[in-house]
Design goal:
The chain has two domains: 115 residues, no CATH class; 166 residues, no CATH class. It has 314 residues and is α+β, with helices and mostly antiparallel strands. A hairpin with a 2-residue loop joins strand 6 and strand 7. A five-stranded antiparallel sheet has the order 4-2-1-3-5. Strands 10-11-7-6-12 form a five-stranded mixed sheet, covered by helices on one side. Strands 8-9 form a two-stranded antiparallel ribbon. The protein is elongated and about 80 Å long.
Length: 314
């Protein structure tokens, strides 16, 4: 059964992925009903049907709505009938006692009337799900749940693999850093910056760049290389060793480019990797690689103007 078709096209008898929908899923024994929301309701229902095989797809409804809050309204209106399932699994809190599909539908259409819109109702959920499974037989299926011991082992393995990947990426960045003629560490307003000297004849874009944050092409490339992004065993870690540069011209031919180091120097560079957090490993490696550079305080003269360094600090 298909109800009113505005605002969807009458020719497209399936929900539009990406738009808000609520779904009403009664059970075959007519004792319970689930109300939820999704922007991809067919895929969502496919997953729920695997968890709750008692769902009666032939009487289930999907309603295209104009706000995700419609689900909250339905939950509030029928709150006295709400009863979470005893078994905690996906969606277990959104169940209601009784069988009131038509009542919920009527109330939803009443909401649409008061809002001056029309909600499309799809009553062919079983057919939609069959078509979805024909395209993707694995839709809605999930990996088997891990035991607590298995999750603990997987977490430990992920940390090990992430640590190794972070160290590898950081070392590769340090190899690139050595090619950029970074010549000093500059302290300014509680932050530490890597500084490099720029010659106009080699990198003229710093003097030509318009805007509040001038930079050179090489400086921007170095900042991109400073992004660490790794994944392992379903876990991920992403951060920046250096922040985007700020270029400060010293005179017509010489300039300086500053890269704020995202984290301060660790209290000790001698700690073993296993005693450090994942990001601390990377910054410990970076600081070890640059500890030979001279350390300067921010200069207040025309060669390195203070306003430029303040822009970098921001």
């Amino acid at each position: 059964m298909i109800y009113s078709h505005s605002p969807y096209s009458p020719e497209k008898l399936s929900p539009i992925v990406g738009q808000s929908h609520v779904y009403i899923l009664p059970t075959q024994d007519q004792t319970q009903l689930k109300i939820g929301r999704s922007i991809d309701p067919v895929v969502r229902i496919a997953g729920l049907a695997n968890i709750y095989p008692s769902i009666d797809l032939s009487r289930s409804l999907i309603i295209g709505v104009d706000s995700h809050r419609i689900e909250n309204v339905l939950h509030t209106v029928f709150s006295l009938r709400r009863k979470a399932l005893e078994t905690r699994t996906d969606g277990y809190t959104e169940w209601f006692t009784g069988d009131f599909v038509e009542e919920a539908l009527t109330f939803t259409q009443l909401i649409a009337q008061h809002r001056g819109v029309a909600y499309t109702v799809f009553g062919n959920v079983d057919r939609l799900l069959q078509e979805c499974r024909a395209r993707n037989p694995l839709v809605g299926q999930r990996a088997p749940q891990l035991t607590p011991d298995e999750r603990k082992v997987r977490t430990q393995l992920a940390k090990i693999l992430l640590r190794e990947a972070i160290l590898d990426h950081t070392q590769r960045f340090i190899d690139v850093l050595y090619e950029y003629d970074v010549d000093a560490i500059v302290h300014h307003e509680g932050n530490a910056y890597l500084a490099r000297t720029v010659h106009r004849e080699q990198e003229p874009e710093g003097w030509q760049c318009e805007g509040s944050r001038p930079y050179t092409d090489r400086g921007r490339h170095l900042a991109r290389q400073a992004q660490i992004s790794v994944q392992a065993e379903g876990s991920s870690c992403m951060f920046h060793l250096l922040q985007p540069p700020i270029f400060v011209p010293c005179d017509a031919d010489i300039g300086r480019e500053y890269f704020r180091i995202s984290e301060p120097r660790p209290g000790s560079l001698a700690l073993p990797a296993n005693d450090l957090f994942l990001t601390e490993i990377a910054f410990a490696e970076l600081w070890s690689a640059i500890e030979h550079l001279p350390v300067l305080e921010a200069l207040q003269n025309s060669a390195e103007p203070n306003d430029g360094m303040q822009s970098a600090a921001r």
